[in-house]
Structures
1.
Amino acid sequence: MAAANLIDGRAIADKVHEETRRQIAVLKENGIQPGLAFVRVGEDSASKVYVGMKERACANLQIQSRTHVLPDEASEKELLQLILRLNADPGVHGILIQAPLPKQIRGSAIYAAVSPGKDVDGFHPVNMGKLLLGDTSGFVPCTPAGVQILLAHSGTLIDGANVVVLGRGNIVGKPLAALLGQKAPHANATVTLCHSGTRNLVEHCRAADILIAAIGSPHFVKRDMVKPGAVVIDVGVNRVENSTAENGSKLVGDVDFDAVQTVAGKITPNPGGVGPMTIAMLLRNTVRAAADAHGIQL
Ligand code: NAP
C-alpha cells in the first residue's frame, strides 16, 4: 500500500496565524495590543522549552508576552496571589500556567483561579462546562481545538465518522471527545474514548475512521491497530533514549509512524503535526480574549 498523505501541521498553523495577524491588525486600529502572561513554576527543562517556543510565537505576531517564574518550592498561595494580580491587570488578556506544576500545588485549584475570560488554555471549569454544553462563547483547550482544525483543513470528513480517542486526560482526550461529538460543523462524530481500563482496545482502534492517540506512551499505536485508509493523529510527546542524539534522547509520538504510515490514509508527522497547532490556537484564543475584553467584534 502507498504511504499515507501527511497532514502538515506547520502549514496549517501558518494559515491560522495569517488569520490571527489580520485580527491583531483590527485590534491595533482600536489601540489595543493583546497581552499574554506565562507562568512557570520551577526549572523543568521541557517547560522552559515550551514556554520559550510560545514566547517566540508571540513575538512573531506582535503579541506582548511576559513570563513570570516562581521557584520549585513556591506554595499554592504564592501562585494564587500571582494569578489574582494577573487577573486584575488590564494589559494581560490571557494567562497560561505551564504544566507540570510541583506536587505541593493542586492544578485544579490553580486553573479554577484564572479568570474565565483570560483562560486562553480553556482549563477553567466554566470553559470546560461551556465546551460540554456546546456554548461557543467559552475558550476551547488549545490542543483539541488544533486537532479539529487539522482534520478540517486536511479535508477529513468528521461528520458521522467513527472517531477513537486514545487517552482521557483533562488536557487532550476528554475535551477532544466532547468537541468532536458536538452537533456542530466539523464535529458530529461517533466518539469512543479509550483508556487503560478499555477492554479490546485494539478492536476499538481498528474500527476507527479517525484514530487520535493522546496517551503519552511511545509508539503505542502499531500498524495492526489501524484500519486501512484511516486518518491517524498523533498528539503524544515522549522523550526516549537515543544514543546517536547529542543529548542522548529524542522526542517521539504515541504512534509508530514508520509502520502506521504504510496503512493509514492520512497521518500527522510528529514533530510537525499537532504541536504547531497547539501554539496557533493559544495565540488565536489570546487575541479573542483581548477583543472580548474591549467589546470588539473580530
Ligand atoms: P494524561 O493526562 O497523562 O492522560 C493519559 C491518558 O492515557 C490517560 O487517560 C490514561 O488512562 C491513558 N493511557 C495511558 N497508557 C495507556 C495504555 N497503555 N492504554 C490505554 N490508555 C492509556 O496525558 P495528557 O496530558 O492528556 O497528554 C497525553 C499525551 O499528549 C502526552 O504525551 C503529552 O505530552 C501529549 N501532549 C501533546 C501536546 C501537543 O501540543 N502536542 C499537548 C498536550 C499534551 P487512565 O485514565 O486510565 O490512566
2.
Amino acid sequence: MLWARELIARRAPVRVRHVVAPRDELTERAKAAYFGLAIGDALGATVEFLTPNEIRHQIGVHREIIGGGWLRLKAGQVTDDTTMSLALGEAILAHGSVDAKSAAEAFDAWMKAKPVDIGNTVRRNLVLFRKTGIPEATFSEHDAGNGAAMRVLPVALACYGQPEKDVVFSNQAQAHVTHNNTISDAACETLIFMVHDLFAGRDLAEIRQQRADALVSRFPVFAFNKKRIENPSGYVVETIQAVFQAFFSTETFEDCLLDVVNRGGDADTTGAIAGMLAGARYGLEAIPKRWLSAIDGKTLGQCSAQATGLLALAGCAT
Ligand code: MN
Ligand code: MN
C-alpha cells in the first residue's frame, strides 16, 4: 500500500528527491516527529509564559534543555503536550483505531494521575465527561485553545495513508473530547496533513501552499505573513502562526525550535508542535544529540514504541 501511495504522491511534477527504502525512512521520520514533540515540549517549558525580553535578560538565547520554568521541571521532563499525546497513542493502540470513548477514558486516567500541567479547557471538559460519560464536548466558539492541536501526532501516525475524510473524522473523535471548535479542528487537520506530506517527502513549497496557505484561505485569521508573533498565547491561532513563522523561515531542526521557543509565551506547546513538524521534515539524524540525550529515557522509549506501533496500525509496518 505504502509503495503505491508514495508513487502516486511523487508523480510528476513532484521531484523524487531520494531513492532509499521508503519504509525505513518513514519509521525514522515518525520517530523523529515524536522525539521532536518531546524535545520541543521540554525545551520550551523552561521559558513558558516568559516574554522574549524576559528570556533575553534571564538566559540570553534559550538553547538547552535544563528544566525549571514555572513548573519547576527536572531537566528533560516533558509536560502535558507530550504526555497527553502518549495517553492518546496508548488508547489508539489498545482500541485498534481512533475512538472518542477510548480517548476520553485515557485522558481521564491521565488527569487522575495528576499531570504536571493541564489546560483549563481540557480540565473543564474532562470533568464534564466524568459526570456525563459523553466523550464529546459541547460545541463552543470559545474553546479555540491549542490543547487538541498539541496532541495530534498519534492520530497522524495511525491514519497515515487514509483518505482525507477518514483522517478528519478520526481527528475530530479525539479533538472533540475537549475542544469542539471549528478553528481548533482546522488547525489540527492542517497539522496532520502536513505531517503526512512531510513523511511522504513532498516538496516544502507545495506543502506551504496546499496546507498552510490553504488554511489561511479558509480561515483568514490564521494569516502568518504579517507581523512577527511574539509571546504567543494558548489561542490555537497564535500558536499556529508562531509555529509556521518559525518552521517556514528556518532550515534546520535546531534553528526551527530555537526560533519558536525564544518567542516565549506558550513555548512548550509551540515547541512541541514545531518539533513534531521539524522532526518529520528533517529526520532523526538532524536532531541534536545533546537534546535527544537530555530527554527522560522512559519518555523517549514510549515515543519510539508508539511511532512504530501506530504506523503498523496504519498498515505501514517495517
Ligand atoms: Mn505543556
Ligand atoms: Mn503550554
